[in-house]
Write a structure and sequence with these properties.
By secondary structure, the chain is mostly beta strands. Helices cover 8% and strands 44% of the residues. The chain starts with 8 loop residues before the first strand and ends in a 15-residue tail after the last strand.
Length: 204
């Protein structure tokens, strides 16, 4: 089953002959103008090439801005237009950071559609039995290494790259792929474990 995609706008980047998907997403943070003054902000929508901010002080068009978002880090760009409630920022990210951001935005766009748990702050545990069998969407099975487990999800070291939103089975536990990272994937359990159910002896 292909990942569910929300209705998205597009930003066309003529430098790379590509379109970036704009995702409606609410993230909180702060931004710094060229004056070195900082203000709180909230994202309205975002893509790997730009973001629109709800901001109390508008940046001037062409002004350099640095944004710190609580969940995904620091971004630098140039204000390209003002809006009624803030301004839009254009970013020129390195390919690796741009691809990582695209994965993160896909997660934010899809998590409500898949009814995924939103609390990603659960303590992560490294199990004693790290080898497990993973069944991919096509039905083929691979042996992978569990990096860590929490009540809501698991990190798996593998070269496989099932698409974001793919349903997989880790051992006997159903899960949904929510992110890719270097050397592996992250998945959220379809049914989170209860407090006390997870420890070093847990086998999925």
């Amino acid at each position: 089953m292909a990942a569910i995609q929300p209705q998205l706008n597009y930003l066309y980047d003529s430098r790379e002959n590509r379109r970036f998907q704009r995702v409606p997403v609410t993230l909180f943070g702060r931004y710094m103008l060229e004056s070195r003054r900082e203000y709180p902000c909230q994202t309205v929508e975002m893509s790997p090439g730009d973001m629109t901010l709800f901001a109390p002080v508008k940046a001037q068009i062409g002004e350099k801005v640095v944004v710190y978002l609580d969940e995904i880090g620091r971004f630098a760009g140039v204000a390209m237009r003002q809006t009624d409630v803030g301004f839009a920022l254009s970013m020129n990210l390195p390919p690796m950071k741009r691809d990582k951001l695209a994965d993160q935005l896909t997660w934010f766009a899809n998590r409500h559609a898949f009814n995924l748990p939103e609390d990603r702050r659960h303590e992560r545990i490294v199990p004693l039995m790290q080898r497990t069998l993973v069944r991919l969407p096509e039905g083929n099975e691979i042996i992978a290494k569990i990096k860590d487990i929490s009540l809501s999800g698991v990190g798996i070291e593998t070269e496989a790259r099932p698409y974001l939103g793919a349903k997989i089975i880790i051992g006997t536990t159903p899960a949904v792929v929510v992110r890719h990272f270097e050397g592996g994937i992250g998945a959220e359990f379809e049914k989170p474990f209860n407090p006390g159910d997870i420890d070093e002896s847990t086998r999925l």
